[in-house]
Design goal:
Layout lengths: L1 E10 L3 H12 L4 E4 L4 H6 L5 E3 H9 L4 H6 L1 E3 L1 E6 L2 E6 H5 L3 E3 L2 H14 L12 E3 L6 E7 L2 E12 L6 H4 L7 E16 L9 E4 L5 E7 L2 E8 L10 H12 L11 E15 L2 E2 L2 E3 L5 E2 L7 H22 L3 H4 L1 H23 L7 H16 L1 H11 L6 H7 L3
Parallel strand pairs: 1-2, 1-10, 5-12, 10-17
Antiparallel strand pairs: 3-7, 4-7, 5-6, 8-9, 9-10, 11-14, 11-15, 12-13, 13-14, 15-18, 16-17
């Protein structure tokens, strides 16, 4: 049986795991990344595409942001449409921050390339991981590597394997507390081979449901429609999708470029947090520890923030024997996690008509929207949360002296 010895075993090659591995490499800490899916699947998995400024700055600071700077689209604000009106909020003017549109799968490709060039590419197709000895002298992961049974022994395990991953489920019953909310709607998402209708994101609040116009490139648009949580994709042929997009996004006849649709999918809406985010030698990060509804696009950015906190804590342990940052990992992360959960929940409530919503609630939501576009103070507070001003992983890493 093959034995692999490392300092940190990272389960999951999504943004959390790959950013963590990259930062640990820069800090001189050895790690091994184990991923259940194959490389083609991981690099082709279409997910969020909005990077807060702190996330984009971190990628630049650590040498993996060159392609992002060439191909990403920097947005200084966004457009909000409701009641047949168009309102633009400039985050650059309101709080001095921007966001960058660059697909999560592209971030993943850049990070995998960096790990490969460093001589430590992730192990892909490892679908039989069993985690043990989380409270012993060293953690043990049993799996198959390259067709051969293997044991990975590590000082610490980073659980970055998502909501359905094995690491969180490896913790003894009763050690973790889960907080969860399921929303009574979902998003139907498609890619359109058509130029975006505008230079920035368009959020549309309509009595028939929410719609979002995003983009992946100057020639590819990403579009979403609010639908029922149990919606059947078969009931949504492309003509119906296009008609509904026009109704919700273009109530005043604004142009909507159309092209062939692909990558149809339904995204459920839920909030989830597990506390604590650590147990023995295991530290959870990203979707393994928390899920936010996609309305505010915080999932990827929270994953990167977790990775920065954990990388700093591990570097402090190996460099100075300082256990304090590791012991405080949950406390540090949850401050940001719950703030992002609150903003995501508030934005979801603001933008989506709920099933059975009465006329009173509909008018209250409209009043909140009016306040957002009519009050400088309200718009500034919103812009700060939207761009993640209070959670800046690049600044946090610089402040840690990395």
């Amino acid at each position: 049986m093959r034995t692999v010895r490392t300092q940190v075993a990272i389960v999951g090659a999504g943004p959390a795991g790959l950013v963590l591995a990259h930062l640990l490499h820069l800090d001189g800490v050895r790690s091994v990344v184990l991923e259940r899916r194959d490389r083609a699947y991981v690099e082709g998995r279409v997910r969020a595409g909005l990077l807060e400024q702190g996330t984009a700055d971190l990628l630049r600071d650590t040498g993996v942001g060159r392609r992002m700077d060439r191909e990403g689209q920097v947005h200084e604000g966004f457009e909000l449409r409701f009641d047949g009106e168009r309102h633009r909020l400039s985050t650059a003017e309101l709080c001095g921050r921007t966001v960058t549109m660059y697909g999560q799968q592209e971030v993943v490709k850049d990070l995998i390339r960096a790990r490969t060039e460093a001589g430590a590419p992730p192990y892909f197709g490892v679908d039989d991981i069993a985690v043990g000895d989380l409270t012993g002298d060293a953690a043990t992961l049993r799996c198959t590597l390259g067709g051969q049974p293997a044991v990975v022994r590590a000082d610490f395990v980073a659980g970055c394997d998502g909501f359905h991953g094995v690491t969180r489920r490896s913790v003894s019953a009763g050690r973790l507390t889960a907080y969860e909310r399921t929303y009574p709607f979902a998003w139907l998402g498609v890619l359109a081979a058509a130029p975006p209708a505008g230079e920035e994101l368009i959020y549309a609040v309509h009595e028939r449901g929410f719609a979002l116009h995003s983009m992946r490139s100057p020639t590819v648009s990403r579009l979403y429609l609010q639908v029922a949580p149990d919606e059947d994709l078969a009931r949504w042929p492309d003509d119906r999708i296009r008609a509904e997009l026009r109704t919700r996004l273009c109530p005043a006849g604004e142009p909507l470029h159309e092209g062939p649709l692909s990558r149809h999918g339904i995204t459920s809406m839920r909030g989830f947090v597990v506390e604590p985010m650590q147990y023995g030698r295991l530290f959870l990060a990203g979707d393994a520890a928390h899920i936010v509804p996609p309305t505010a696009a915080k999932g990827l950015n929270l994953a990167v923030s977790d990775a920065v906190v954990l990388a700093g804590a591990l570097a402090a342990w190996y460099a100075r024997g300082d256990r304090g940052p590791l012991d405080g990992y949950t406390r540090t992360c949850l401050r940001h996690v719950w703030r992002a959960q609150d903003f995501s929940a508030s934005l979801t409530r603001l933008f989506h008509p709920y099933p059975g919503e009465d006329a009173m609630e509909a008018r209250l939501r409209r009043a909140r929207l009016r306040r957002l576009v009519g009050s400088g103070a309200a718009a500034t507070s919103f812009a700060e949360e939207y761009t993640g001003l209070a959670r800046d992983p690049a600044a946090a890493r610089r402040g840690a002296g990395a």
